[in-house]
């Protein structure tokens, strides 16, 4: 089923794009991440220009996050105060990211920068996830439990001024910490089309020290509004959003989110994390190979 993408200016198999969206939805349902960190590179591998892939993935992640926010809200798993501070930071970050996106686009380096960012971030996050999962599996097999983590925020967070009480998260910290975190994820969302959940979730646990039962819901809440603002910014400035591509991805993500929720309830969380880490590392390796591998023919001419 060939479908023409007007902004990307090419024809694609619509079923393949729907399948990519399903992968995004499953990741959202299982891990509470937007999934754009895998959708964008997979679309690049398929031949879609990186700028269009990043912009369209951001709009699709918005739709994939809606159902997750409602589900988490019903069970009281969203810290709206903390999430709103991070949303404010995310909007600031989107403005900064838009300036960087346009600058790199004028310099002709935006595609290369997007690929390098993915290699660095996916490689580091995937490596940390794999190490933690393997350590947990070893502890389960040997019967020697891992030492429990102390849930406390990073010392740098403790030194920031103007402390607020975040009752749902059980924290008494400065709002500057989640604000800065939101700015960082906003920049990445604008440049890379990611929701930011694969960075937000570990950062909220190990840097802010948030309670684990509100981390996923608060992450999805921030992702929802930041990707929404990112979509509007791309539409107004870069004009790189392909609505046909985003719609096909959204169709797949709605189905994938339901499947992911069921899979998460039936599978071991440790195994799921290890599988996700392996996928992330494979994608990072493939993108690194694409940056350094010289094709046999640098230029090709295809018949119309």
TrEMBL record:
GO terms for cellular component: plasma membrane. It is a multi-pass membrane protein. The keyword Transmembrane helix applies. Keywords: Cell membrane, Membrane, Transmembrane, Transmembrane helix. The chain crosses the membrane at residues 12-38, 83-104, 110-130, 171-199, 205-228, 240-259, 271-289. The keyword NADP does not apply. Its main location: membrane. InterPro entries: TM_pro_TauE-like, TSUP/Inactive_protease-like. It is found in: Cell membrane; Membrane. Belongs to the 4-toluene sulfonate uptake permease (TSUP) (TC 2.A.102) family. This is Probable membrane transporter protein.
């Amino acid at each position: 089923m060939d479908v023409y993408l007007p902004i990307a200016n090419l024809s694609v198999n619509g079923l393949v794009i729907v399948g990519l969206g399903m992968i995004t939805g499953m990741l959202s349902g299982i891990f509470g991440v937007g999934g754009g960190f895998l959708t964008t590179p997979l679309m690049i591998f398929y031949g879609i220009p990186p700028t269009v892939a990043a912009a369209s993935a951001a709009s699709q992640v918005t739709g994939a996050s809606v159902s997750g926010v409602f589900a988490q809200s019903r069970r009281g798993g969203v810290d709206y105060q903390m999430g709103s501070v991070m949303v404010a930071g995310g909007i600031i970050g989107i403005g900064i990211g838009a300036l960087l996106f346009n600058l790199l686009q004028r310099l002709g380096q935006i595609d290369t920068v997007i690929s390098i960012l993915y290699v660095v971030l996916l490689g580091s996050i995937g490596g940390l996830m794999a190490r933690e999962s393997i350590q947990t599996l070893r502890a389960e097999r040997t019967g020697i439990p891992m030492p429990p983590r102390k849930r406390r925020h990073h010392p740098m967070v403790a030194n920031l001024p103007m402390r607020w009480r975040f009752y749902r998260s059980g924290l008494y910290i400065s709002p500057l910490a989640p604000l800065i975190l939101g700015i960082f994820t906003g920049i990445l969302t604008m440049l890379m089309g990611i929701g930011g959940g694969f960075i937000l979730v570990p950062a909220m646990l190990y840097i802010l020290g948030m309670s684990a039962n509100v981390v996923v819901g608060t992450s999805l809440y921030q992702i929802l509004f930041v990707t929404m603002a990112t979509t509007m910014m791309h539409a107004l400035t870069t004009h790189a959003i392909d609505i046909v591509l985003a719609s096909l991805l959204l169709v797949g993500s709605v189905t994938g989110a339901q499947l992911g929720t069921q899979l998460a309830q039936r599978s071991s969380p440790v195994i799921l994390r290890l599988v996700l880490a392996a996928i992330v590392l494979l994608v990072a390796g493939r993108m690194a190979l694409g940056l350094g591998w010289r094709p046999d023919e640098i230029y090709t001419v295809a018949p119309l």
